[in-house]
Structures are given as structure tokens and as C-alpha cells.
Amino acid sequence: MEGNEASGLNEGRTATRLVVVDDHDLAREGIKDMLLDEADIEVVGEAANGREALLVCSRTRPDMLLMDVRMPEMDGLAATSEIKKRYPETSVLMITMHENPDYLLEALKAGAAGYVLKDAPQEEVIGAVRRVREGESPLDSELAARLLRRLAAGEGAKGPRRPAGDPSSGQLTPRELEVLRLMKRGLTNRQIAEELVISLGTAKNHVEHIIAKLGTSDRTQAVVKALELGILDLITEP
């Protein structure tokens, strides 16, 4: 977690509206209790499987879901993929037992912003939620870079790669492209600011503009989409 960047939401921003998805009643209750006293996080719904999660999303339109992986009827990966198709601005934070790169790659391909371990301390879970809403990634930077390189190598392509001049690239500026290349290396906003010798606020603004222009909900999926569009190519870039 990175200092003040993960300590809370920007002043004036409404509370993050969250849905908890887990097939175990006690697990859902535990997460809700954990978040109960956080003024900037509001639990607006819960679901016991992926199908229920889709119904809850249609009713509440949350900002984010905390999504378990293994569930009956529809698992977390299938649900994440469907939710991102229907509600692309909704972020999904996966809840997992293990840091398995193969599984996490599938989660990124499905549209997840990252993951949090089931046995993580309360402050890590809360911090992960806040980092996603702040435009940061809850993925470990080295793990993120490794997974994104695997996506670039062809493991994550969802369709034909389009040229960088494609209108769906959102007409990124040269500076935003520079920031995007640092994002794919797993750098945090603070590290991007230091690398480019700019203020932290400016770095955060660039990241937010990139996310908006690429039409994604978070920085992880912004990089994934940039790979699919051919804007980034991690095979040849350092």
C-alpha cells in the first residue's frame, strides 16, 4: 500500500458502492462487518453466486464487486466476464485463496482489476478497494508486469489486434502514451511521478484520463485493452 494514496478517497467523492459475492454466508457477513465502519465504502448488495451477482448489478449498478472465485451455478471468472460486458465501468476485485499466476491471468482476461487474498488482514482488503477506486492496482507490481507480459505474448488476446491509430484508442496524447508504458510495467502513480519528474496529482490525472479514454474501469484493464488494441507491445518494450 502506498502511503496517502491508499488512505482514502478524494474529498468530495461519493462512497464506493460495493457488492459482496461469495457462496458462504459467513464469508459475506465477515466482509460486510469488516467494511461497516468505513465511511467511504457502502455495501449495497450481496450475492451467493455469479447469476445472483448479475441480478444484483442490474438493480444496484455498483461501483465495484468483491467476487469470490469458486461458486455454484456461475463461478467468479464467468460472472466477471459477463458483468464487464454489461457494465464496463463496474470494477471487479477477485477474492482468492492463492496467488496463482495462471488463475490471475484468467482473472485479468475476464476483466478483473486485481485480487485480494481471502485471509488478508482487514486493512489490506479495505486498502485494495480504495486503490482500485483511486486508479491504482491492487496487484503486486512485479506480478502485474509478469502477467501483462504474458498477455502481450498472445495469451490474453480476445480478438484481432487493431492498429494504434484505431479510433478506439481514445486519441491518447504522447504524454499519456508515456504514462501508459509505465503503467504496464506495474508502476504506481507515485513511481510514475518520480520517473517523469511530475507531481503526484499530475500523474494521477494522466492515469484517470487514460482509463476514461480507453473506456475501462481501472488501470489494469486499461493496460489490457491497450495490449489488445496494439497500442502497447510488451514483447519488444522493456
TrEMBL record:
Keyword DNA-binding: yes
Protein name in UniProt: Two-component transcriptional response regulator, LuxR family
Post-translational modification 4-aspartylphosphate, affected residues: 68
Record-annotated Response regulatory domain positions: 17-133
Keywords: DNA-binding, Phosphoprotein
Disordered as annotated region, ranges: 155-175
Molecular function per GO: DNA binding
Pfam families: GerE, Response_reg
Source organism phylogeny: Bacteria, Bacillati, Actinomycetota, Rubrobacteria, Rubrobacterales
A GO BP annotation: phosphorelay signal transduction system
Organism expressing this protein natively: uncultured Rubrobacteraceae bacterium
PANTHER family, per the entry: TWO-COMPONENT RESPONSE REGULATOR
Chain ranges of the HTH luxR-type domain: 165-230
Domain of life according to the entry: Bacteria
InterPro entries, A to Z: CheY-like_superfamily (IPR011006), NreC/VraR/RcsB-like_REC (IPR058245), Sig_transdc_resp-reg_C-effctor (IPR016032), Sig_transdc_resp-reg_receiver (IPR001789), Tscrpt_reg_LuxR_C (IPR000792), WalR-like (IPR039420)
